[in-house]
Protein backbone atom coordinates (compact mmCIF):
# COMPACT_ATOMS: atom_id res chain seq x y z
CA UNK A 1 0.00 0.00 0.00
CA UNK A 2 1.38 3.37 -1.00
CA UNK A 3 1.50 6.22 1.44
CA UNK A 4 -0.94 9.05 1.15
CA UNK A 5 -0.02 11.99 -1.06
CA UNK A 6 -0.08 14.82 1.43
CA UNK A 7 -0.52 17.51 -1.25
CA UNK A 8 -3.66 15.89 -2.48
CA UNK A 9 -7.16 17.05 -1.63
CA UNK A 10 -8.78 15.11 1.28
CA UNK A 11 -5.62 13.08 1.53
CA UNK A 12 -5.55 12.62 5.31
CA UNK A 13 -8.55 10.30 5.23
CA UNK A 14 -7.03 8.07 2.59
CA UNK A 15 -4.52 5.32 3.15
CA UNK A 16 -3.98 4.90 -0.60
CA UNK A 17 -3.07 7.43 -3.22
CA UNK A 18 -5.60 8.18 -5.91
CA UNK A 19 -5.09 5.99 -8.93
CA UNK A 20 -3.28 8.00 -11.60
CA UNK A 21 -5.96 7.36 -14.19
CA UNK A 22 -8.77 8.15 -11.73
CA UNK A 23 -7.05 11.42 -10.92
CA UNK A 24 -7.26 12.47 -14.56
CA UNK A 25 -10.68 10.89 -15.02
CA UNK A 26 -12.26 12.85 -12.16
CA UNK A 27 -10.50 16.14 -12.82
CA UNK A 28 -12.37 19.04 -14.40
CA UNK A 29 -9.65 21.68 -14.41
CA UNK A 30 -9.10 21.37 -18.15
CA UNK A 31 -12.52 22.83 -18.78
CA UNK A 32 -13.68 24.56 -15.60
CA UNK A 33 -10.62 26.85 -15.50
CA UNK A 34 -12.58 29.16 -17.73
CA UNK A 35 -14.65 30.10 -14.66
CA UNK A 36 -11.50 31.22 -12.83
CA UNK A 37 -12.37 34.90 -12.73
CA UNK A 38 -15.86 34.14 -11.44
CA UNK A 39 -14.32 31.85 -8.83
CA UNK A 40 -12.06 34.68 -7.66
CA UNK A 41 -14.97 37.12 -7.65
CA UNK A 42 -16.95 34.68 -5.48
CA UNK A 43 -14.02 34.21 -3.11
CA UNK A 44 -13.57 37.96 -2.68
CA UNK A 45 -17.21 38.31 -1.70
CA UNK A 46 -16.99 35.30 0.62
CA UNK A 47 -13.83 36.65 2.33
CA UNK A 48 -15.43 40.08 2.72
CA UNK A 49 -18.39 38.47 4.44
CA UNK A 50 -16.23 36.18 6.64
CA UNK A 51 -14.37 39.25 7.86
CA UNK A 52 -17.54 41.14 8.56
CA UNK A 53 -18.85 38.34 10.79
CA UNK A 54 -15.50 38.06 12.55
CA UNK A 55 -14.19 34.77 11.12
CA UNK A 56 -11.30 36.47 9.33
CA UNK A 57 -9.30 39.41 10.64
CA UNK A 58 -8.96 42.43 8.39
CA UNK A 59 -5.31 41.50 7.91
CA UNK A 60 -6.23 38.00 6.77
CA UNK A 61 -8.96 39.32 4.49
CA UNK A 62 -6.63 41.84 2.89
CA UNK A 63 -3.94 39.26 2.39
CA UNK A 64 -6.54 37.00 0.70
CA UNK A 65 -7.49 39.92 -1.56
CA UNK A 66 -3.86 40.55 -2.50
CA UNK A 67 -3.23 36.86 -3.15
CA UNK A 68 -6.35 36.56 -5.31
CA UNK A 69 -5.33 39.68 -7.26
CA UNK A 70 -1.94 38.12 -7.95
CA UNK A 71 -3.61 34.90 -9.08
CA UNK A 72 -5.94 36.86 -11.32
CA UNK A 73 -2.97 38.55 -12.99
CA UNK A 74 -1.17 35.22 -13.37
CA UNK A 75 -4.23 33.72 -15.05
CA UNK A 76 -4.75 36.72 -17.31
CA UNK A 77 -1.11 36.61 -18.37
CA UNK A 78 -1.26 32.87 -18.98
CA UNK A 79 1.35 32.25 -16.28
CA UNK A 80 -0.81 30.29 -13.88
CA UNK A 81 0.27 26.66 -13.48
CA UNK A 82 -2.92 24.59 -13.64
CA UNK A 83 -2.53 21.16 -12.12
CA UNK A 84 -4.63 18.03 -12.57
CA UNK A 85 -3.63 16.94 -9.06
CA UNK A 86 -5.64 19.88 -7.77
CA UNK A 87 -8.63 18.50 -9.65
CA UNK A 88 -10.62 21.61 -10.48
CA UNK A 89 -10.54 25.38 -10.77
CA UNK A 90 -11.54 25.85 -7.13
CA UNK A 91 -8.77 23.71 -5.63
CA UNK A 92 -6.17 25.05 -8.04
CA UNK A 93 -6.86 28.61 -6.98
CA UNK A 94 -7.08 27.79 -3.29
CA UNK A 95 -3.81 25.84 -3.38
CA UNK A 96 -2.04 28.67 -5.16
CA UNK A 97 -3.49 31.18 -2.68
CA UNK A 98 -2.13 29.21 0.24
CA UNK A 99 1.25 28.92 -1.48
CA UNK A 100 1.27 32.69 -1.93
CA UNK A 101 -0.05 33.94 1.42
CA UNK A 102 0.23 31.01 3.82
CA UNK A 103 -2.25 30.20 6.56
CA UNK A 104 -4.83 32.89 5.70
CA UNK A 105 -5.34 31.06 2.40
CA UNK A 106 -6.37 27.96 4.32
CA UNK A 107 -9.12 29.91 6.08
CA UNK A 108 -10.90 31.03 2.91
CA UNK A 109 -12.94 27.85 2.60
CA UNK A 110 -14.54 28.31 6.05
CA UNK A 111 -18.32 27.97 5.83
CA UNK A 112 -18.17 27.11 2.14
CA UNK A 113 -18.04 23.97 0.00
CA UNK A 114 -17.08 23.48 -3.60
CA UNK A 115 -20.72 22.49 -4.08
CA UNK A 116 -22.11 25.95 -3.44
CA UNK A 117 -18.95 27.50 -4.88
CA UNK A 118 -19.30 25.82 -8.27
CA UNK A 119 -23.03 26.55 -8.45
CA UNK A 120 -22.23 30.21 -7.79
CA UNK A 121 -19.43 30.30 -10.36
CA UNK A 122 -21.59 28.83 -13.12
CA UNK A 123 -24.31 31.37 -12.46
CA UNK A 124 -21.86 34.26 -12.57
CA UNK A 125 -20.29 32.87 -15.72
CA UNK A 126 -23.61 32.31 -17.48
CA UNK A 127 -24.96 35.71 -16.52
CA UNK A 128 -21.99 37.38 -18.22
CA UNK A 129 -22.26 35.12 -21.28
CA UNK A 130 -25.93 35.99 -21.67
CA UNK A 131 -25.05 39.70 -21.73
CA UNK A 132 -22.65 39.05 -24.63
CA UNK A 133 -25.25 36.90 -26.39
CA UNK A 134 -27.87 39.62 -26.00
CA UNK A 135 -25.53 42.21 -27.46
CA UNK A 136 -24.97 39.98 -30.54
CA UNK A 137 -28.72 39.52 -30.79
CA UNK A 138 -29.11 43.29 -30.72
CA UNK A 139 -26.57 43.68 -33.50
CA UNK A 140 -28.28 41.08 -35.62
CA UNK A 141 -31.63 42.74 -35.05
CA UNK A 142 -30.21 46.13 -36.02
CA UNK A 143 -28.84 44.60 -39.23
CA UNK A 144 -32.24 43.08 -40.00
CA UNK A 145 -33.98 46.42 -39.44
CA UNK A 146 -31.60 48.20 -41.81
CA UNK A 147 -32.01 45.60 -44.52
CA UNK A 148 -35.80 45.52 -44.01
CA UNK A 149 -35.88 49.28 -44.43
CA UNK A 150 -34.05 49.23 -47.74
CA UNK A 151 -36.16 46.29 -48.94
CA UNK A 152 -39.54 47.54 -47.68
CA UNK A 153 -40.82 47.94 -51.27
CA UNK A 154 -39.21 44.80 -52.68
CA UNK A 155 -41.83 42.31 -53.77
CA UNK A 156 -41.18 38.59 -53.55
CA UNK A 157 -43.33 35.48 -53.47
CA UNK A 158 -44.51 34.45 -50.03
CA UNK A 159 -44.60 30.67 -49.61
CA UNK A 160 -46.62 28.09 -47.77
CA UNK A 161 -45.61 24.46 -48.31
CA UNK A 162 -42.72 26.06 -50.25
CA UNK A 163 -45.26 26.74 -53.01
CA UNK A 164 -45.94 30.30 -54.13
CA UNK A 165 -48.81 31.54 -51.97
CA UNK A 166 -49.22 35.32 -51.99
CA UNK A 167 -46.92 38.22 -52.73
CA UNK A 168 -45.12 39.71 -49.74
CA UNK A 169 -42.43 42.31 -49.36
CA UNK A 170 -38.88 41.25 -48.58
CA UNK A 171 -38.87 43.83 -45.80
CA UNK A 172 -41.82 42.04 -44.24
CA UNK A 173 -40.05 38.70 -44.47
CA UNK A 174 -36.97 40.16 -42.78
CA UNK A 175 -39.16 41.57 -40.03
CA UNK A 176 -40.49 38.06 -39.40
CA UNK A 177 -36.96 37.03 -38.50
CA UNK A 178 -36.64 40.13 -36.38
CA UNK A 179 -39.74 39.11 -34.38
CA UNK A 180 -38.34 35.64 -33.66
CA UNK A 181 -35.29 37.29 -32.14
CA UNK A 182 -37.48 39.58 -30.01
CA UNK A 183 -38.97 36.50 -28.36
CA UNK A 184 -35.52 34.94 -28.01
CA UNK A 185 -34.27 37.96 -26.14
CA UNK A 186 -37.28 37.86 -23.82
CA UNK A 187 -36.56 34.22 -23.07
CA UNK A 188 -32.94 35.02 -22.23
CA UNK A 189 -33.96 37.88 -19.98
CA UNK A 190 -36.44 35.62 -18.23
CA UNK A 191 -33.74 33.01 -17.76
CA UNK A 192 -31.50 35.61 -16.10
CA UNK A 193 -34.15 36.14 -13.39
CA UNK A 194 -33.57 32.61 -12.12
CA UNK A 195 -29.82 32.65 -12.71
CA UNK A 196 -29.68 35.67 -10.44
CA UNK A 197 -30.42 33.72 -7.25
CA UNK A 198 -27.35 33.00 -5.13
CA UNK A 199 -26.50 29.46 -3.92
CA UNK A 200 -23.42 30.53 -1.92
CA UNK A 201 -23.94 29.72 1.75
CA UNK A 202 -25.63 26.39 1.09
CA UNK A 203 -22.15 24.93 1.67
CA UNK A 204 -22.01 21.18 0.96
CA UNK A 205 -25.78 20.69 1.22
CA UNK A 206 -27.04 21.58 4.70
CA UNK A 207 -25.79 25.12 5.15
CA UNK A 208 -23.16 26.04 7.72
CA UNK A 209 -22.96 26.57 11.47
CA UNK A 210 -21.24 29.95 11.06
CA UNK A 211 -23.43 33.06 11.29
CA UNK A 212 -22.93 33.89 7.60
CA UNK A 213 -24.50 36.95 6.02
CA UNK A 214 -25.91 35.70 2.74
CA UNK A 215 -27.56 39.01 1.93
CA UNK A 216 -24.17 40.66 1.95
CA UNK A 217 -22.55 38.13 -0.40
CA UNK A 218 -25.61 38.23 -2.69
CA UNK A 219 -25.36 41.99 -2.87
CA UNK A 220 -21.60 41.95 -3.47
CA UNK A 221 -22.01 39.49 -6.34
CA UNK A 222 -24.98 41.28 -7.88
CA UNK A 223 -27.51 38.53 -7.16
CA UNK A 224 -31.07 39.60 -6.46
CA UNK A 225 -31.33 37.36 -3.37
CA UNK A 226 -29.89 34.32 -1.62
CA UNK A 227 -31.52 30.98 -2.52
CA UNK A 228 -34.21 29.57 -0.21
CA UNK A 229 -33.12 25.99 0.32
CA UNK A 230 -29.59 24.69 0.74
CA UNK A 231 -30.28 21.22 -0.69
CA UNK A 232 -31.88 22.67 -3.78
CA UNK A 233 -29.14 25.28 -4.17
CA UNK A 234 -26.28 22.84 -4.63
CA UNK A 235 -28.17 20.44 -6.84
CA UNK A 236 -30.22 22.77 -9.03
CA UNK A 237 -29.12 23.06 -12.66
CA UNK A 238 -32.52 24.16 -14.02
CA UNK A 239 -31.04 27.49 -15.01
CA UNK A 240 -28.46 25.75 -17.20
CA UNK A 241 -31.19 23.67 -18.83
CA UNK A 242 -33.35 26.75 -19.36
CA UNK A 243 -30.46 28.58 -20.94
CA UNK A 244 -29.63 25.65 -23.20
CA UNK A 245 -33.30 25.31 -24.15
CA UNK A 246 -33.41 29.00 -25.03
CA UNK A 247 -30.17 28.62 -26.96
CA UNK A 248 -31.67 25.65 -28.83
CA UNK A 249 -34.64 27.78 -29.85
CA UNK A 250 -32.36 30.57 -31.03
CA UNK A 251 -30.29 28.07 -32.99
CA UNK A 252 -33.48 26.58 -34.46
CA UNK A 253 -34.39 30.10 -35.63
CA UNK A 254 -30.95 30.67 -37.09
CA UNK A 255 -31.19 27.28 -38.76
CA UNK A 256 -34.48 28.17 -40.45
CA UNK A 257 -33.00 31.49 -41.46
CA UNK A 258 -29.99 29.58 -42.85
CA UNK A 259 -32.17 27.21 -44.80
CA UNK A 260 -33.85 30.13 -46.57
CA UNK A 261 -30.54 31.81 -47.32
CA UNK A 262 -29.16 28.59 -48.77
CA UNK A 263 -32.23 28.14 -50.96
CA UNK A 264 -32.32 31.76 -52.04
CA UNK A 265 -28.64 31.85 -52.91
CA UNK A 266 -29.10 28.87 -55.27
CA UNK A 267 -29.20 29.46 -59.04
CA UNK A 268 -32.74 28.05 -59.03
CA UNK A 269 -34.11 30.76 -56.72
CA UNK A 270 -31.44 33.44 -57.27
CA UNK A 271 -33.19 35.82 -54.84
CA UNK A 272 -30.06 36.96 -53.04
CA UNK A 273 -26.32 37.23 -53.35
CA UNK A 274 -24.40 36.30 -50.22
CA UNK A 275 -21.20 38.23 -49.57
CA UNK A 276 -18.10 36.49 -50.97
CA UNK A 277 -16.41 36.90 -47.60
CA UNK A 278 -18.99 34.55 -46.07
CA UNK A 279 -18.84 31.86 -48.73
CA UNK A 280 -16.18 29.42 -49.82
CA UNK A 281 -15.18 27.72 -53.04
CA UNK A 282 -14.87 24.09 -53.96
CA UNK A 283 -11.56 22.26 -54.15
CA UNK A 284 -12.59 20.64 -57.43
CA UNK A 285 -15.30 22.78 -59.08
CA UNK A 286 -13.88 26.19 -59.93
CA UNK A 287 -17.28 27.80 -60.51
CA UNK A 288 -18.67 27.05 -57.04
CA UNK A 289 -19.60 29.61 -54.41
CA UNK A 290 -20.94 27.67 -51.45
CA UNK A 291 -23.06 29.19 -48.65
CA UNK A 292 -20.91 27.53 -45.99
CA UNK A 293 -21.70 29.93 -43.17
CA UNK A 294 -25.48 29.39 -43.16
CA UNK A 295 -24.97 25.69 -43.77
CA UNK A 296 -22.65 25.41 -40.81
CA UNK A 297 -25.04 27.35 -38.58
CA UNK A 298 -27.83 25.03 -39.65
CA UNK A 299 -25.60 22.09 -38.71
CA UNK A 300 -24.60 23.57 -35.38
CA UNK A 301 -28.23 23.90 -34.31
CA UNK A 302 -28.24 20.10 -33.93
CA UNK A 303 -25.21 20.28 -31.72
CA UNK A 304 -26.82 22.77 -29.33
CA UNK A 305 -30.05 20.78 -29.10
CA UNK A 306 -27.82 17.79 -28.31
CA UNK A 307 -26.41 19.72 -25.35
CA UNK A 308 -29.93 20.42 -24.11
CA UNK A 309 -30.72 16.72 -24.18
CA UNK A 310 -27.40 15.95 -22.44
CA UNK A 311 -28.24 18.27 -19.57
CA UNK A 312 -31.76 16.92 -19.19
CA UNK A 313 -30.40 13.37 -19.09
CA UNK A 314 -27.66 14.45 -16.70
CA UNK A 315 -30.17 15.67 -14.15
CA UNK A 316 -33.08 13.31 -14.52
CA UNK A 317 -32.10 10.57 -12.04
CA UNK A 318 -30.03 12.46 -9.52
CA UNK A 319 -31.08 12.22 -5.90
CA UNK A 320 -30.58 15.31 -3.74
CA UNK A 321 -28.23 16.94 -3.18
CA UNK A 322 -24.91 17.40 -5.05
CA UNK A 323 -23.55 14.50 -7.05
CA UNK A 324 -20.36 14.34 -9.06
CA UNK A 325 -22.55 13.85 -12.13
CA UNK A 326 -22.97 17.61 -12.03
CA UNK A 327 -19.41 18.12 -13.16
CA UNK A 328 -20.65 16.97 -16.55
CA UNK A 329 -22.82 20.08 -16.85
CA UNK A 330 -19.97 22.36 -17.86
CA UNK A 331 -18.82 21.19 -21.27
CA UNK A 332 -22.30 21.18 -22.86
CA UNK A 333 -23.05 24.51 -21.24
CA UNK A 334 -19.81 26.19 -22.31
CA UNK A 335 -20.06 24.81 -25.82
CA UNK A 336 -23.66 26.01 -26.07
CA UNK A 337 -22.64 29.57 -25.15
CA UNK A 338 -19.61 29.49 -27.49
CA UNK A 339 -21.54 28.09 -30.42
CA UNK A 340 -24.38 30.52 -29.96
CA UNK A 341 -22.06 33.52 -29.77
CA UNK A 342 -20.20 32.45 -32.91
CA UNK A 343 -23.36 31.81 -34.90
CA UNK A 344 -24.96 35.10 -33.89
CA UNK A 345 -21.77 36.91 -34.74
CA UNK A 346 -21.58 35.26 -38.16
CA UNK A 347 -25.14 36.33 -38.89
CA UNK A 348 -24.81 39.83 -37.46
CA UNK A 349 -21.79 40.40 -39.69
CA UNK A 350 -23.21 38.70 -42.79
CA UNK A 351 -26.74 40.15 -42.90
CA UNK A 352 -25.68 43.75 -43.70
CA UNK A 353 -24.01 42.45 -46.88
CA UNK A 354 -26.88 40.35 -48.20
CA UNK A 355 -27.85 41.71 -51.59
CA UNK A 356 -31.44 41.30 -52.77
CA UNK A 357 -31.85 40.46 -56.46
CA UNK A 358 -35.04 42.43 -56.72
CA UNK A 359 -35.97 41.69 -60.34
CA UNK A 360 -35.64 37.95 -59.75
CA UNK A 361 -37.82 38.13 -56.68
CA UNK A 362 -40.40 40.13 -58.59
CA UNK A 363 -40.37 37.71 -61.52
CA UNK A 364 -40.83 34.78 -59.17
CA UNK A 365 -43.79 36.48 -57.50
CA UNK A 366 -45.37 36.87 -60.93
CA UNK A 367 -45.46 33.10 -61.30
CA UNK A 368 -47.77 30.79 -59.43
CA UNK A 369 -50.92 32.98 -59.44
CA UNK A 370 -49.93 34.76 -56.24
CA UNK A 371 -52.79 37.26 -56.55
CA UNK A 372 -55.55 34.65 -56.80
CA UNK A 373 -56.72 35.39 -53.24
CA UNK A 374 -56.88 39.08 -54.13
CA UNK A 375 -59.25 38.30 -56.98
CA UNK A 376 -61.46 36.27 -54.63
CA UNK A 377 -61.46 39.11 -52.09
CA UNK A 378 -62.38 41.52 -54.93
CA UNK A 379 -65.45 39.42 -55.81
CA UNK A 380 -66.42 39.27 -52.14
CA UNK A 381 -66.28 43.05 -51.95
CA UNK A 382 -68.62 43.10 -54.97
CA UNK A 383 -71.13 40.93 -53.10
CA UNK A 384 -70.20 37.31 -53.87
CA UNK A 385 -69.92 34.75 -51.04
CA UNK A 386 -66.28 33.80 -50.39
CA UNK A 387 -66.74 30.09 -51.24
CA UNK A 388 -68.30 31.01 -54.60
CA UNK A 389 -65.52 33.49 -55.27
CA UNK A 390 -62.97 30.77 -54.45
CA UNK A 391 -64.61 28.58 -57.12
CA UNK A 392 -64.70 31.35 -59.75
CA UNK A 393 -61.04 32.19 -59.22
CA UNK A 394 -60.15 28.50 -59.44
CA UNK A 395 -61.62 28.44 -62.94
CA UNK A 396 -59.70 31.58 -63.91
CA UNK A 397 -56.48 30.02 -62.61
CA UNK A 398 -57.13 26.94 -64.70
CA UNK A 399 -57.47 29.11 -67.81
CA UNK A 400 -54.22 30.83 -66.88
CA UNK A 401 -52.48 27.47 -66.45
CA UNK A 402 -53.76 26.17 -69.78
CA UNK A 403 -52.79 29.31 -71.66
CA UNK A 404 -49.58 29.86 -69.63
CA UNK A 405 -50.60 33.34 -68.50
CA UNK A 406 -50.82 35.07 -65.13
CA UNK A 407 -54.25 36.26 -63.97
CA UNK A 408 -53.24 39.84 -64.75
CA UNK A 409 -52.56 38.79 -68.34
CA UNK A 410 -56.10 37.49 -68.97
CA UNK A 411 -58.32 39.92 -70.84
CA UNK A 412 -61.28 41.63 -69.21
CA UNK A 413 -63.63 39.68 -71.48
CA UNK A 414 -62.04 36.39 -70.45
CA UNK A 415 -62.37 37.28 -66.77
CA UNK A 416 -65.94 38.46 -67.19
CA UNK A 417 -66.83 35.06 -68.64
CA UNK A 418 -66.31 33.74 -65.10
CA UNK A 419 -68.26 36.49 -63.39
CA UNK A 420 -70.09 39.57 -64.58
CA UNK A 421 -69.16 41.29 -61.35
CA UNK A 422 -65.63 41.78 -62.71
CA UNK A 423 -64.99 45.22 -64.19
CA UNK A 424 -61.80 46.89 -65.43
CA UNK A 425 -60.76 48.04 -61.94
CA UNK A 426 -59.83 44.38 -61.39
CA UNK A 427 -56.37 44.93 -62.86
CA UNK A 428 -55.36 47.20 -59.96
CA UNK A 429 -55.81 44.36 -57.52
CA UNK A 430 -54.28 41.72 -59.77
CA UNK A 431 -50.96 43.54 -59.76
CA UNK A 432 -48.37 42.50 -57.18
CA UNK A 433 -48.14 46.07 -55.93
CA UNK A 434 -51.93 46.23 -55.50
CA UNK A 435 -51.86 42.97 -53.57
CA UNK A 436 -49.18 43.97 -51.05
CA UNK A 437 -50.46 47.53 -50.68
CA UNK A 438 -53.91 46.22 -49.75
CA UNK A 439 -52.50 44.58 -46.62
CA UNK A 440 -52.19 47.60 -44.36
CA UNK A 441 -53.47 46.31 -41.03
CA UNK A 442 -51.09 45.69 -38.11
CA UNK A 443 -48.83 42.81 -39.05
CA UNK A 444 -49.55 43.18 -42.79
CA UNK A 445 -47.04 43.14 -45.62
CA UNK A 446 -47.75 46.57 -47.21
CA UNK A 447 -44.54 48.62 -47.60
CA UNK A 448 -45.90 51.48 -45.47
CA UNK A 449 -46.96 49.05 -42.76
CA UNK A 450 -43.53 47.46 -42.81
CA UNK A 451 -41.90 50.88 -42.48
CA UNK A 452 -44.14 51.56 -39.50
CA UNK A 453 -43.19 48.23 -37.92
CA UNK A 454 -39.52 49.08 -38.39
CA UNK A 455 -40.04 52.48 -36.80
CA UNK A 456 -41.81 50.93 -33.80
CA UNK A 457 -39.09 48.32 -33.44
CA UNK A 458 -36.43 51.03 -33.46
CA UNK A 459 -38.24 52.93 -30.72
CA UNK A 460 -38.33 49.89 -28.44
N1 LIG B 1 -15.54 20.16 -10.05
C1 LIG B 1 -16.75 19.98 -9.34
C2 LIG B 1 -17.98 20.21 -10.25
O1 LIG B 1 -17.81 20.64 -11.30
C3 LIG B 1 -16.82 20.94 -8.20
C4 LIG B 1 -17.62 20.45 -7.06
C5 LIG B 1 -16.99 19.26 -6.47
N2 LIG B 1 -17.65 18.86 -5.26
C6 LIG B 1 -17.46 17.67 -4.74
N3 LIG B 1 -18.08 17.40 -3.64
N4 LIG B 1 -16.71 16.76 -5.34
O2 LIG B 1 -19.08 19.92 -9.89
Keywords:
460 residues, mainly alpha, Fumarase C, Chain B, domain 1, Fumarase C, Chain A, domain 2, Ribonucleotide Reductase Protein R1, domain 1, 3 domains, two-stranded antiparallel ribbon, two-stranded parallel sheet, 6 strands, binds arginine
CATH architect. name of the largest domain: Up-down Bundle
Which homologous superfamily in CATH is the superfamily of the largest domain?
Answer: Fumarase/aspartase (Central domain)
Secondary-structure element sequence?
A: HHHHHHHEEHEHEHHEHHEHHHHHHH
- Gross geometry: elongated
* Count of discrete structural domains: 3
What proportion strand?
A: under 5%
Distance between the termini: 69 Å
Assembly state:
single chain
CATH top level of the largest domain is: Mainly Alpha
How many DSSP E strands? Answer: 6
Average pLDDT confidence is 96
Strand neighbour order, sheet with most strands: 1-2
Please, how many helices? 20
- Counting helices, strands and paired strands, the structural category is mainly alpha
User: What is the CA-based Rg, rounded?
Assistant: 31 Å
Helix content: 55-70%
Biggest sheet architecture:
2 strands, antiparallel
